[in-house]
What does this fold into?
Amino acid sequence: LNTGCRRSELLGLRWEDVDFDQNTIYIAGSYQQKYGYGETKTLRSRRTIKLRQQEMNLLKEMYDESLLYVFQRPDKPEPISVNGIQKEFRKLCNALKLPHIGLHGLRHTHATLALQARTPIEIVSRRLGHSTISMTMETYRHIIPAEDAALAEELGGLLD
It folds into this structure.
């Protein structure tokens, strides 16, 4: 939720791409069960994402130098399967009585919250690894009218 990454990017996240000193992760590739580790979806998908100390602390707790991938079980040489993660995520949502939006829904939630927080669309686009800003605009344009109305109210209040 805090990264905006695609599932395949998170599954392909290797420990060597986690920088605990800079509180960043580098999205260098992606992992799909059918194809294994490979290129990111686009060149712009290769990116560095800054995380808060809280997320980095969780990663430090999970760190295991014997594993290549962040989302890997010790008894397997590859990352956890998408189905396995989705099953665990569903259990967590049930336990917390949260709606089932799916793992990809977390990416959309990340973008929506960032835009509602008035993060410039260029930054949101870069964080999501979209190939163009227009792609981000097209995907999340339904957020913008509400932001425009909020801006009208805010500016009106300043001018009153």
